[in-house]
Amino acid sequence: MIRSLVRPGVALAAALAAGVALLPAQAASAGAPLGGQAPKKVVSAYFADWNVYGRGYYVKDIPVDKLNVIQYAFGVPTFDAATETPGCSVLDPWADFQQVYWSGENTVDGVADNYPDQRLYGNFNQLRKLKAANPGLKVEISLGGWTKSTHFAQVAKTAARRQAFVASCIDTFIKGNLPTGGWPENAGGIGAAAGVFDGIDLDWEYPTAKADGNIDYGPEDRHNATLLAQEFRRQLDALSRETGQHYLLTAALPAAKNSTKYYELRDFVKQLDWVNIMTYDFNVMGGAVAAHDTLFTRDPRDPNASDWTWNTVGTVAYYLAQGVPAKKIVVGVPFYANQYIRSDAGLYGPFDNTGLDGESLQWDQKPQPSYHDLVDVAGVVSPTGAGANGYTRKWNALAGEPYLVNPAGTHALASGTVTVATTICYSDPRSIGERTALVKALGLRGAMAWEISQDSDDGALIGALAPILR
């Protein structure tokens, strides 16, 4: 049955899962309380606060019939070195809780904000409305991310700092005590965002490593991350005893063997309801050849093929072997592509992306266009899933991934328009459906997507994950 659902790679993972299920560590991992209000199956997607600027994608656009958890990106760990004071802050006060919706056009319920008599506006207010209309929906605040993990190592370094940091995060996001002093004048304050967030997602990228800019990092981070998770669990459980509500604690963790390099995986995961494994970015734009951002199974031609865990099935098998229970594993999928220009040799050949701009809003200038770009903007993927407008869709059976090729792709770069061979590696409903089948076959917790605004207008990718919830 498993082979008919996906491919032999999943059968391999199933066999590995069956083997490690008997390990004492698997059975002994108690973890955070999973009862109460923690969903037993998860389809989760990030919603980024900046979505309201770029694409103009609003909370009202989130397809809540196809998911049950929203991870809001991002909250920001802070640290005042002069006073050694940790903190936990909103990223963008305007988008988060100050932006007034003057009409009902972009609101969840079609009702405009009641300025100046509200204390909560923006995305937070719309999330509150979305939850009211969908009682089973959970919303977490995700802390850190690639660019905002700067102070994690500092806030996790001592017991006193950990206690203060966790208390600040709970105060800001769970209790909803937002800063004041901005505009509208009444926005924010004590309890303004109470009830918006059901838990906290830790996205420390990465303990022991500088990553995009960690400060004061070191080898002690690996254990400090475990202690930090324990402190979050302790304080969240203490609050649960007061309110009777279970508060979620999850984390975004790296794929492959890197997970144990950065984390004391088994002990860290014990504190969590589940882990969102970032089984993407296996190949990034700084690589030497055009390659898939995510792989379902190992392709011996891939630059990192010597590492058997450097793919989704391999990563899941590795986590299981490390004693992470299947019911705590949530598999990550990307809703964006890798675009390579001047790639005459096609997949796994050299490329030259000179002129592409990661800050551009034009799909043909982006190193990583979204699935929405490919389908709804550029039309290089047709509604039927075939290639279009000069692009041919191909399927890599070894990796279990699609890609597009065009010997004469046109790109309006800042330096001028060029027509060059183009290769685009992306995810589509078929490849994402493989993840859905994997989750079901192995009894995993679910799947997570980065991020929801990057899906096509018809929600094809999140729709391919939705069967997990049935």
UniProtKB/TrEMBL annotation:
Catalysed reaction equations from the record: Random endo-hydrolysis of N-acetyl-beta-D-glucosaminide (1->4)-beta-linkages in chitin and chitodextrins
Record-linked PROSITE patterns: GH18_1, GH18_2
Signal peptide: 1-27
Keywords: Carbohydrate metabolism, Chitin degradation, Glycosidase, Hydrolase, Polysaccharide degradation, Signal
Keyword Signal: yes
E.C. numbers: 3.2.1.14
Keyword Hydrolase appears in the UniProt entry: yes
Domain GH18 per the UniProt entry, residue ranges: 41-470
GO MF annotation, one: hydrolase activity
Record-linked PANTHER family: CHITINASE, CHITINASE 12-RELATED
Family to which this protein belongs: Belongs to the glycosyl hydrolase 18 family.
Protein name: chitinase
Organism: Hamadaea flava
Record lineage: Bacteria, Bacillati, Actinomycetota, Actinomycetes, Micromonosporales
